[in-house]
Amino acid sequence: MTLRPSAASLTTRRFVKTSMGRALKFVQTLDKPGGPAIMASAEMAGKNGPKKDGEGTLGWLRERNRRRVLEVLREQGQISQAEIARTTGLSRTTISTLVAELKGSGLVNELEPRVPDARGGRPAAQLVLPASQEAVLGIDFGHSHVQVAVADLAHSVLAERRCELDVNHQAIQALDASASMAVEVLEEAHVRRADIVGVGIGIPGPVDHARGTVGSATILPGWLGLRIPQEIEQRLALPVAIENDANLGALAERTWGAGRDCSDFAYIKAATGIGAGLIIDGRLLRGASGTAGEIGHTTLDESGALCYCGNRGCLETVASGPAIVALVGHYNGEPLTLSRVIDLALHGDVRCRRAISDAGREIGVAVAGLCNLINPQRVIIGGLLSGAGELLLQPIRDSIRRHAVLAAAESVDVVAAVFVERAELLGTLALALQRARAA
Ligand SMILES: [Zn+2]
């Protein structure tokens, strides 16, 4: 399995078939409309008489449920009938009827089970969407790169491309580059623009979802006031959805990685900055204005160093990549990068090990507060710093045990993310698959 990026700028990977596994055994209602709560309100609407466009009628409800089943198949790639029932909150009988109709009209296929399940019994048949020309696009803007990928609805990446660019300050150039790269990957993958059913966009900063703008003047200075979804829609004439990098990392882990079997987890992206993507009850938590998860600006020391956000003693002032690099300083006269510090630590350098361990301890203090608030089942550590492995993870666990309430600390697992370099790019694809409307 090769999920980390190679040096090649353009690759074809069929990652689902090798790494995503066949058994997705958990509820997954990622931030989707049409989940159980909406079904309940639809049923209530039915009791109060039909609304416009047949809303609330039995036919309307059946169509809505049918679309929901197709959406779940699109999000998951492959799933059993029982899992669809759990994910949608609809009864097994309803799902059974809908799936039979969809199979009858050729909109859903059933795969023959090939191996017995863990208890030796016959495994549940897996349902998939039939082969289709339809695809999704993902566009990930990093601070200094743009990545674009196209994937089919079976969750296989068909082509991807990357270029290095000063994204922070050159917003228009980055937007133009992303559009050119989108055309290139579509050509490479032989996908027509008309067959793209959704585009996911990622930016490395908070998103103001009401305006579609960057929610911080200091993180992406060149992007201030730009309505990013509209900018992309103008260039590509395709529907787009946008999320920040930590939320996209959480979506990628939720869909294919360390959060697949988990409906309550915190994904922590620890790199140049530190952010969290929070999955609560299977859904992404954005907060009132889209800044939920800004754990990097948790105050740890009121009289600590001044942070670029304007406060003092934020977590990022002591545990971000630049803070760690500054703490270590030079190594035998060699100026360091975070990657180099991690590498030296893994090779036993005591100063680098201590710097990473201290960063882990501080991250753990902030994560302990998060555990008290949301009681996650799992904390998934991603971002470049997660490459330090247990050197980082163990101090985080120690701090959680020390600072969180016992019940929350005892019930949480701290694990490394599956995706690091491609987390955001895969997250943009997961976002596009999630948002794309079912046929
Ligand atoms: Zn701050």
Can you give a write-up of this model?
The chain is α/β, with parallel strands linked by helices and 439 residues long. The chain has 3 domains: 31-128, Winged helix-like DNA-binding domain superfamily/Winged helix DNA-binding domain (Arc Repressor Mutant, subunit A, Orthogonal Bundle); 135-250 and 424-435, ATPase, nucleotide binding domain (Nucleotidyltransferase, domain 5, 2-Layer Sandwich); 261-417, 2-Layer Sandwich (Nucleotidyltransferase, domain 5). It is 40% helix and 17% strand. The strands form 5 sheets. A 5-stranded mixed beta sheet has the order 6-5-4-7-10, with helices on both faces. The chain has a 5-stranded mixed beta sheet with strand order 13-12-11-16-17, with helices on both faces. Strand 14 and strand 15 (334-335) form a beta hairpin. Helix 4 (81-88) packs across helix 5 (92-104), helix 10 packs antiparallel against helix 12 and helix 11 (338-346) packs across helix 12 (350-374). The longest helix has 25 residues, at 350-374. The two termini are 32 Å apart. The structure holds zinc ion. Residues 297, 307, 309, 311, 314, 316 line the site of zinc ion.
